Amino acid sequence: MSTSKRATVYFDPEIHRALRLKAAISDKSISDMVNEAVKLTLAEDAEDLAAFDERKAEPNLDFEQFVKALKRRGKI
Question: Are 23 and 29 in contact (CB under 8 A)?
Fold first, then answer.
């Protein structure tokens, strides 16, 4: 069983109102909704980190050289 930790979060008043309304409609607490949103964000970060890790062996492209090559080939 995990133990919840308390944190104080300050919301813009309009955001807080929207959260309260959504919580009432969805029959969830604001805390549950914030936890879900944070978990989704962290999962996206984990996916990004995995993608970076998979591509770390690829050669780096110099942006300036890439743009010049596009211009030479008439692409821009």
Answer: yes
- For the chain, strand residue ranges (E) read none
- Tokens (6 digits) for 52: 């970076």
Which tokens go with 7?
Answer: 């944190």
pTM confidence score? 0.69
Among 11, 64, 3, residue whose Cα is nearest residue 34: 11
Cβ-contact 40, 15 below 8 angstroms = no
72 burial level (CB within 10 Å; 0-12, 13-18, 19+): exposed
Tokens of 65: 């050289």
| Measured distance CA(21)–CA(23) in Å, rounded | 5
**pLDDT digit string, tens, across residues 6-35:** 999 999 999 999 999 999 999 999 999 999
